[in-house]
Amino acid sequence: MTRHDPDIMNLLASRPSLHMDAQDGLIFEGVPLQTIASQMGTPCWVMGAGTLRRRTRNLRKAFTERGLGMSIHYALKANDHLATLAVLRQEGCGADIVSGGELRRACQAGIHPGDIVFSGVGKTDAELNLALQEDIGQINVESAEELRRLSRLATAAGAVARVALRVNPHVDADTHDKISTGRLGDKFGIDWAEAPALYREGCALPGLEMIGLATHIGSQILTAAPFRAAYARIAEMVIGLRQEGLPVHAVDCGGGLGIRYRDELAPPPSILAGAIAETLGSLDLRLAIEPGRWIAAPAGVLLTSVIGLKAQREGISDFAIVDAAMNDLARPSLYDSWHGMIPLAPDLAYAETAPLSVVGPVCESSDVFARDRALPPLRPDDRIAILDTGAYGAVMSSTYNARPRAAQVMVENGAWEVITPRQRLESLWADDSIPEWLGAG
C-alpha cells in the first residue's frame, strides 16, 4: 500500500502546540522558533512544558473516565532531562527507571523513591543495593536468577524489597521488531509458563515482599488488540495465583501506546484505559502504567539549519545537507523512522514542494533524516523543525565525529529558557589522558 506523506498544513493541524504565524514563522507554545535558533544556533532541541502537561492530564483523564485509579510512572529512558522530570513530577508522575543512573536522576528531580519502579533485564548488585538503600516503591524482576540474587542482597542489608515479576505474555505487539518486548524469544520478562512457579518461590524467599505482576509488550503500539491480549493473560495469572492463596495486590501494565509520526491513526489513551478496564478493572488491584514516548515525543522538536544543497542527476532527489546529524537524532538511522519536517520561515510554508533528501554531515551513509521528502525549495541557512523528537532524541545523542551535544531549551506560555547549554568542544577531550610512554609532544 502506498503511503502518502502529510503536507505542512496537515502536520500543523495534528499538532496543537505548533502554528505558523504570517510574520514570525513557526511558533511553539507561543515562542517563535526563529528567535531560539537565532540566539542559540543550531542544532538545538526545544521541549514544550505545556505539551508535557497537557498530554499527561489527557492520559490521566482517560483512566478517570473509566473509573480506574492509575499510577503513572514516566519512563525516564524516553527523555531524562531534569527539567522534563520536574514538569512531570508537578503533574503527579512517578518514574520508571532501568539503571542506577536513572534512579539517581529521578531522585535528583525530586521524585519520591516510593514512586519509582525499577525495570530492566540487567540490574547489577550495586544497582539493586542502591534501590534497597533508597527504599524504592517496586522492583520489576525479570529472571529467576535476579529474584534469588535480590533475596540475598535484601537479607544481607536487613531490607525488604517490594517485587513484581515481569511476565512475558507471548504477545506480538505488531510494531517494529527492535521495539517489541513481549514475544517468545525476546530478552525481556519471565516466560509465561515459568512465572507461576517463580512467584510461589518468591513468596517463600526472605527479604522479598511479592506484590504482583508487571508486563510491557513493546512500543509504538497503535491498536487495542495487543494490549487486551496481554492484559487478559495477566488477569488469568492473577486469578490463578490468588486461588493458590498467594498475595497479588498490583499489576504494572507497562507502556507502549503509539503516537502519530507520519500518517498513523494514533490511538487515543482511551483505548489503553479500555483494555485495562475490561481485563483487570474488576480484580481489585493497584494499577500502574509506564508511558514515555506518548507523553514526551510530541513535546519536542529539533531545530536544524541547511548547510548547503547538492544537486543529483535527473531522476534522483537533490540533497539538502543540514547541521543536525545521526549523532543528534539516531532514530532514523536505527529504525528507518519517519519524522515530520516544517521550515521555520513563513514564506516556505506555502511554497510549492518537490522531492528532496535531507541528510546530515556525519561520515556514515545512514546519516539520513528523509529520502524523497516533499519539501519547499530550501536555501542555505534556512531552518527546519524536525518534529516529535521529545522522546528518544537528545537522550540517545552522542558525540560521534567529535560533534558536541546540542543545546536544549524549554518553552511554555510564550517564555523560553536554556536548560542545557551547547557542549563546549574542549570538553570532548577534557578527560582524555596520554600514557607517559607516548610522550607529551
From TrEMBL:
<dbReference type="Pfam" id="PF02784">
    <property type="entry name" value="Orn_Arg_deC_N"/>
</dbReference>
<feature type="binding site">
    <location>
        <position position="331"/>
    </location>
    <ligand>
        <name>substrate</name>
    </ligand>
</feature>
<dbReference type="InterPro" id="IPR009006">
    <property type="entry name" value="Ala_racemase/Decarboxylase_C"/>
</dbReference>
<feature type="binding site">
    <location>
        <position position="392"/>
    </location>
    <ligand>
        <name>substrate</name>
    </ligand>
</feature>
<feature type="binding site">
    <location>
        <position position="256"/>
    </location>
    <ligand>
        <name>pyridoxal 5'-phosphate</name>
    </ligand>
</feature>
<dbReference type="InterPro" id="IPR022643">
    <property type="entry name" value="De-COase2_C"/>
</dbReference>
<dbReference type="InterPro" id="IPR000183">
    <property type="entry name" value="Orn/DAP/Arg_de-COase"/>
</dbReference>
<feature type="modified residue" description="N6-(pyridoxal phosphate)lysine">
    <location>
        <position position="77"/>
    </location>
</feature>
<keyword id="KW-0210">Decarboxylase</keyword>
<dbReference type="InterPro" id="IPR022657">
    <property type="entry name" value="De-COase2_CS"/>
</dbReference>
<comment type="pathway">
    <text>Amino-acid biosynthesis; L-lysine biosynthesis via DAP pathway; L-lysine from DL-2,6-diaminopimelate: step 1/1.</text>
</comment>
<comment type="subunit">
    <text>Homodimer.</text>
</comment>
<feature type="domain" description="Orn/DAP/Arg decarboxylase 2 N-terminal">
    <location>
        <begin position="51"/>
        <end position="297"/>
    </location>
</feature>
<keyword id="KW-0663">Pyridoxal phosphate</keyword>
<feature type="binding site">
    <location>
        <position position="293"/>
    </location>
    <ligand>
        <name>substrate</name>
    </ligand>
</feature>
<dbReference type="GO" id="GO:0008836">
    <property type="term" value="F:diaminopimelate decarboxylase activity"/>
</dbReference>
<feature type="binding site">
    <location>
        <begin position="290"/>
        <end position="293"/>
    </location>
    <ligand>
        <name>pyridoxal 5'-phosphate</name>
    </ligand>
</feature>
<feature type="active site" description="Proton donor">
    <location>
        <position position="363"/>
    </location>
</feature>
<feature type="binding site">
    <location>
        <position position="364"/>
    </location>
    <ligand>
        <name>substrate</name>
    </ligand>
</feature>
<keyword id="KW-0457">Lysine biosynthesis</keyword>
<feature type="domain" description="Orn/DAP/Arg decarboxylase 2 C-terminal">
    <location>
        <begin position="298"/>
        <end position="390"/>
    </location>
</feature>
<dbReference type="GO" id="GO:0030170">
    <property type="term" value="F:pyridoxal phosphate binding"/>
</dbReference>
<feature type="binding site">
    <location>
        <position position="335"/>
    </location>
    <ligand>
        <name>substrate</name>
    </ligand>
</feature>
<dbReference type="GO" id="GO:0009089">
    <property type="term" value="P:lysine biosynthetic process via diaminopimelate"/>
</dbReference>
<protein>
    <recommendedName>
        <fullName>Diaminopimelate decarboxylase</fullName>
        <ecNumber>4.1.1.20</ecNumber>
    </recommendedName>
</protein>
<comment type="function">
    <text>Specifically catalyzes the decarboxylation of meso-diaminopimelate (meso-DAP) to L-lysine.</text>
</comment>
<dbReference type="InterPro" id="IPR002986">
    <property type="entry name" value="DAP_deCOOHase_LysA"/>
</dbReference>
<dbReference type="Pfam" id="PF00278">
    <property type="entry name" value="Orn_DAP_Arg_deC"/>
</dbReference>
<keyword id="KW-0456">Lyase</keyword>
<comment type="similarity">
    <text>Belongs to the Orn/Lys/Arg decarboxylase class-II family. LysA subfamily.</text>
</comment>
<keyword id="KW-0028">Amino-acid biosynthesis</keyword>
<feature type="binding site">
    <location>
        <position position="392"/>
    </location>
    <ligand>
        <name>pyridoxal 5'-phosphate</name>
    </ligand>
</feature>
<dbReference type="InterPro" id="IPR029066">
    <property type="entry name" value="PLP-binding_barrel"/>
</dbReference>
<dbReference type="InterPro" id="IPR022644">
    <property type="entry name" value="De-COase2_N"/>
</dbReference>
